[in-house]
Amino acid sequence: MPELPEVETVARDLQPLILGKSITEVWWSGKKMRLPWTNSWDRALEGLIFTKVSRRAKWLVLHLAERGAGWDWTGGSALIAHLGMTGQLTFVRRGKEYELPKDHVHLRFGLVSSGKKANGLNEGLRRDFEAGELRFRDIRRFGGMAYAKDSAEVDLFFAKHRLGPEPWDCPLDGWLGALSGTKRLIKAVLLDQSVISGVGNIYADESLHAAGIHPCRMASSFNEAEGAKLLEMADSVMRKAIENRGSTIRDYVGGENLNGGHQNSLLIYGREGEACFRCGILVKRFVVAGRSSHFCPVCQKAPKDAGAKPVRQRRGPA
DNA sequence: ATGCAGTCCTGTAAGC
DNA sequence: TGCTTACAGGACTGCA
After folding, report:
1. Which residue places its CA closest to the C1' of nucleotide B10?
2. Within 7 Å: CB of A139 and strand B?
3. Residue A263 · residue A241 · CB < 8 Å
4. Left (φ > 0), alpha (ψ -120 to 50) or beta: where does A245 sit?
5. Among this protein's residues, is A229 annotated catalytic?
6. Is A2 in the active site?
7. Phi-psi region of A167 (alpha: psi -120 to 50; beta: other; left: phi over 0)
């Protein structure tokens, strides 16, 4: 499930692979995605050159320039992608297409080297100028891609989605204000992209565990130290996950179709019934804020009025 | 205005 | 063995 660290890994992988390449053709499966593709974008994209790959929260931004535009130019048009739950955005070298799964592929962008010498383009990043295709694959189609024809449209797109700051950009006073000003459980607040962006279910559980806070705590019950601690843990948990190239629970792959490595470092998510690494007590799982939530009943003390719905224990093999 | 439940979507695996 | 059903969850919609 791609969250900020997974999307950051895709961005870092893709940048050197597609930088300086131009789009020769666009193919769409015709299947409806969460972010609906529009046929008329195909013609507009042909001939455009990738100049930069960036990320905002869980969104990927593939910046494009018109042929002849300055190489250091990063404004202008862009392809914006969200990976949803099972989205994969990878660069596939020509001739290697059939080494990768071809089911559930919804968008393919044919790419060739622009043939231009780089003026100001970081030579170190251009390690590969082979032709190939940028491929969007998404089993559940909760993700999708959109084209924004200029920087104003890119800005409008992100304004519409009302993304809050990422953990490392989140001012403490704003965060504490958001906690005190809501009647929601802390788990729901962590997952609210307009309050703090980039955190999904996995890293919300990891952050709460690292901070020793139960997911059913009312956000408004936090004192300053608790709020600061949680923000600090969200920051460090995400940074470590980025270092490990994200977590592959099932379908996530980076921009080079490689699995992440952080799934082996998760301390609480997916560990129901296993011993807490800190205290040895068995990890529990409840549905909180409509999401499966993993926590340690000792390290993360439950509030007296915890109102989570118990989840039926999954039986292992007989 | 606020918060919650329901919805989408398909592969996987539990359970009968 | 084979079928049915529950589950995974990001972001949005609709309702109370």
Report:
1. A140
2. yes
3. no
4. left
5. no
6. yes
7. alpha
> What CATH number is given for A167-310 in this structure?
1.10.8.50
| CATH 1.10.8.50 domain position(s) in chain A | 167-310
Read off the pLDDT of residues A242-272 as tens digits, 9 standing for 90 and up. 999 988 887 888 998 889 988 888 999 999 9
Considering the entire predicted model, what is its pTM? 0.90
Distance A173 CA to C3 C1' (A): 55
Residues of chain A where predicted confidence (pLDDT) is lower than 70: 67-75, 115-129, 305-318
Q: Which residue is nearest to nucleotide C9 (CA to C1')?
A: A85
Catalytic residue, chosen from A52, A55, A58, A141, is A58
Which stretches within chain A are classed as H helix?
A: 4-18, 41-45, 151-161, 172-180, 186-191, 201-211, 224-243
CATH fold of A4-161: N-terminal domain of MutM-like DNA repair proteins (3.20.190)
